[in-house]
């Protein structure tokens, strides 16, 4: 129940975190080689990515980020900012390279979930309940970027309610009805 209440409390904040929000994916001229951006998004641990980001190395990549957009960067104390940085980097550089397809979006979104879950895995032992809560919140963030991110540019749109997305196989309409 606590996770559901936390999730319900986060929905308004996340609704404003939509990757389709104005300015979210503004393309910046970039000469970032695809092999470099692929490695930074998919090939290195998040701490290595963050070190590269902190030094803007390589400088020809687009390192801009709005963190977790208008959603909380640290929902109930969980630091999702590095994962959001890498997600933004993946979207922005892939777009600038003309490679942002539905397959690329899915791959970047899947990596975002992996990054969030890796972060959540630090909560174990006596704090395992925090890990469960962390993963549930991560699922909400991932559901929103998957269900609501820049669909019109990829040629597919979702009709109806903002909440017509799945959270780990549970229809969000059921969540909406319970609220």
Automatic annotation (TrEMBL):
<feature type="signal peptide">
    <location>
        <begin position="1"/>
        <end position="17"/>
    </location>
</feature>
<dbReference type="InterPro" id="IPR015141">
    <property type="entry name" value="PLipase_A2_prok/fun"/>
</dbReference>
<dbReference type="Pfam" id="PF09056">
    <property type="entry name" value="Phospholip_A2_3"/>
</dbReference>
<keyword id="KW-0732">Signal</keyword>
<dbReference type="InterPro" id="IPR036444">
    <property type="entry name" value="PLipase_A2_dom_sf"/>
</dbReference>
<dbReference type="GO" id="GO:0050482">
    <property type="term" value="P:arachidonate secretion"/>
</dbReference>
<protein>
    <recommendedName>
        <fullName>Secretory phospholipase A2</fullName>
    </recommendedName>
</protein>
<dbReference type="GO" id="GO:0006644">
    <property type="term" value="P:phospholipid metabolic process"/>
</dbReference>
<dbReference type="GO" id="GO:0004623">
    <property type="term" value="F:phospholipase A2 activity"/>
</dbReference>
